[in-house]
Amino acid sequence: MEDPPNEFIKEEVIKHLRNSFPFLPKDRFECVNKKFTTCKKNEFNITYHEGEGMWKECGHYWSNENCEVYYDQIYVNYKDLSNPMLNKRAGKVAAHEMGHSISGHHEKCVMIPNIPDLPSDKCLQFCKRCEKKWEKILGPFD
User: What separation in angstroms does the CA of 33 have from each of 37, 55, 60?
Assistant: First the structure.
């Protein structure tokens, strides 16, 4: 994960990203300060994209090598919120963009459209359907 701009705290963004994957044991989730030139199915580069996204989007999935988080757009859209909520939104956007490697948009999951709006607590983690897809890629969780 690249360092976010000043308004965001990297450790807090990572915490909220990690919270989207409660089914993964602690030793199965690692955030490293390394940019992968090629990514395995279980590796992702979370990149910082300067400026605003298309259609006011807050992130974009181009590939595992490039899961963009539009921190500037998150700040513009939600600057009236406290810093902890900005970090939460950035972490959920990162998880959502990673999730595009396994799924399109659907309800009651981190894959809900417009995840930075955080419409409810039911959208903060991956659903059981996504969890099964992650398990297929990552292997058994226990």
Answer: 13, 30, 20
Residue 121 in tokens: 């607590």
Distance between CA atoms of residues 19 and 7, nearest Å = 21
Has residue 2 been placed in a domain?
no
Name the most confidently modeled range: 78-92, 93-107, 117-131: 93-107
**Is residue 124 situated within a structural domain?**
yes
Q: Give me the DSSP letters along 84-141.
A: HHHHHHHHHHHHHHHHTTT----SSSTTSTTGGG---GGGSS--HHHHHHHHHHH---
Domain span at residue 63 reads 10-138
pTM of the predicted structure, to 2 decimals: 0.93
Q: What is the rounded distance in angstroms from the CA atom of residue 140 to the CA atom of residue 142? A: 6
Which tokens hold the place of 139?
Answer: 């292997």
Residue 104 lies in a domain: yes
Report pLDDT digits (tens) over 45-88. 999 988 766 667 899 999 999 999 999 999 988 888 777 899 99
